Amino acid sequence: MQIQKDKVVSMHYTLKDDNGTILDSSVGKQTLNYIHGHGNLIPGLEDELEGKVKEVKLNVTIPPEKAYGLKQEEMLIDLDRSSFENPENVQPGMQFQAQFDNGTQLLTVVGVTDDKVKLDGNHPLAGQTLHFDVEIMDVRDASAEEMNHGHVHGEGGHHH
Q1: At residue 153, does pLDDT exceed 70?
Q2: Partner of 107 for a Cys bridge, out of 1, 22, 37, 119, CB 3.0 to 4.6 A?
Q3: Where are the alpha helices (DSSP H) in the chain?
Q4: DSSP secondary-structure letter at 74?
């Protein structure tokens, strides 16, 4: 069975950056299970998996435009340090959730001065080329319930 829209794909993956540093991996853990063609993965990875079958192993490189996008300067914001609950504790690398008109956004502290905090609302992997090692473990039809809910159920899925 080939990977195409509405198929449930079970896979193991290892994600690396340009330096070969492992950013994330499912190896030795549960497989990643998702319904193909519904925007559950970054677009570039879904494109590469389209048409593949069980037991295929692939190594793919996804440019930022087909992953988490390019870094957007307008996503960098400066706030007064005094607007934080514990201003003396704010450090680069800390993350905060902020509520915006279009939903919740994760902001990462990228700089701190005496009175200002620079936050980055870009996805942490924005602007990065991503390298995936993927092994397809299984491909099956999605159940009517899974299609209705928009996610995989059972082992490695949304409901355990």
Answers
A1: yes
A2: 119
A3: 43-49, 144-149
A4: G
pTM: 0.81
CB 30 within 8 A of CB 156: yes
> What token pair was written down for 123?
């996805």
21: tokens are 């540093």
Cα→Cα distances 74→1, 22, 93, 119, Å: 44, 29, 19, 11
Q: Which domains does the chain have, with CATH numbers?
A: 7-68+126-149 (3.10.50.40), 73-120 (2.40.10.330)
Beta bridge mates, 9 = 34, 139
What is the pLDDT, as a whole number, of residue 22?
Answer: 97
- Residue 140's Cα: distance from chain center in Å? 23
User: Cα(59)–Cα(129) distance, rounded to whole angstroms?
Assistant: 13
Per the listing, tokens 């295929």 go with 56
Residue 65 corresponds to which tokens in the numbers above? 């435009």
Per-residue pLDDT of 94-121, as tens digits, reads 999 888 787 888 899 999 999 999 999 9
